[in-house]
Amino acid sequence: MRRIASYLIGLFVCVQLAYLPLANILQRIPRRPDPLPDEILGRHQREGRASDSDSIQTILDTTGKSCDRWAEATGQAQGWSLFSPRFGEAGTFLTLDVTAADGSHAELRSRFEPSDPSHYIRYDVVNYRLFYREMSYALIYAHWTPDSFSTQADEWRLAIRHHVSAFRRSLSAYVRWRAATESPDLLIQKITIHVRVFLPPEPGDDAPRPAPILVPLAQWSSGALVPYDPVAGDFARENQP
Fold it and tell me: Which tens digits make up the pLDDT trace of 222-231?
């Protein structure tokens, strides 16, 4: 039994010696990966073709896919980028505006938003999964500034559409769950998803952090999730991803 175990360990080490340099080299060689699954916003793999020969490109694609599957099976998949090329400076917290059939509204803010954003500490080991979900949805606006929509509306429209599309299933489930648990008596007409963006204070300024800015992200109604369109300034179903 020990001999079998030693052989298996030796085999694993040999595979690793081939996998580690090969996977890192292939990540920089253009190949045709499978479409991204939901909840994944981007990849570090260079996409495209490295060769005009279909046979060579197929070998590269197949080898790269094998490395990807091995990384997933052994828990070695990595995505380090050191927050480059841009580092988000804004604090972002999700909030929901629930509109009832009678026209009344209920605001459901994130439980993780601090009452005083200039002086707080968060220590919560119980609700991390919920925190991570909300953070994933709201983090798109970490780079947002008050002039973003006026100067880069087209770029933001594509980014918001892609973001909402990637998270469409879990985000829809999240808003339904929040509404059902926190506003169970409301006959819901629609739920507008906003992000409360806390911009950083000016450098060298002792004034507190500016008041948050409410930035729309998507709208849920009748089971459909529609992204916000900063070009039109509204939620348009024809712009749904």
Answer: 888 999 999 9
**Residue 134: enclosing H or E segment and its boundaries?**
helix 128-138
The phi, psi pair for 98, rounded to 5°, reads -90, 120
Quote the pTM value.
Answer: 0.76
Show the tokens assigned to 208. Answer: 């507190």
DSSP string computed for 56-99: HHHHHHHHHHHHHHHHHHHT------TT-S----SEEEEEEEEE
Is 224 inside any structural domain? yes
What CA–CA distance (Å, rounded) separates 198 from 236?
Answer: 27
Picking from 17, 42, 74, the residue at the C-terminal end of a domain is 74
- Report helix, strand or coil for 103: coil
Strand order from edge to edge, sheet including 234-235: 105-109, 91-100, 188-198, 213-221, 224-229, 234-235
